[in-house]
Amino acid sequence: MKGLLLLDVQKGFLQKGDFQDEMYKIKDLIHIFKNNGDLIISTEHLDFQENSIIENGTERAELVDFVFDNSDVIFKKESPIAFSNADLDTYLKQKNINHLVVVGFNSEYCCLFTSIASVDRGYKTTLIEDATATVNTPETYEMKNLDIRDFVGCILDWSGIVEVLYFDEYIQKYE
């Protein structure tokens, strides 16, 4: 069975850029997974840093409505690795999930680290590159012209352990 893992699709992230295309793809994936009887698993990152874009206890920390409304389960976490909440792995095993499809925020943190940790725990893992996003810029990393999302996708793809697909490729291969 497959599970769609929605990482930190929180209001504060969406206020920091135009992520309309990524959100359409995530909504389409939710619809596909629901129709196939697969599970929707979400994480909510807890950030206790004052004035963080997803500061815990503020509206910015809340999951966007369509994610909250369509999630079969939501796990809270304080680390970029979703599996830092041990209940996630327990839940996936109980539900016989063997393939995780990863989307959400931020590409270079939670999506990257969670994808690697997922494989390490024995799950087939697919990252949908164009259904991930980041609020960071090349200037954040002092690397002019860096395409952060593409860089993360390349690292994971070249690793040979995480399947990296674009949304259309996923649909063509699995639907």
From TrEMBL:
Gene3D superfamilies: Isochorismatase-like. Residues 4-144 form the Isochorismatase-like domain. SUPFAM superfamilies: Isochorismatase-like hydrolases. The keyword Phosphoprotein does not apply. GO terms for molecular function: hydrolase activity. It holds the Pfam family Isochorismatase. Keywords: Hydrolase. Belongs to the isochorismatase family. This is Isochorismatase family protein.
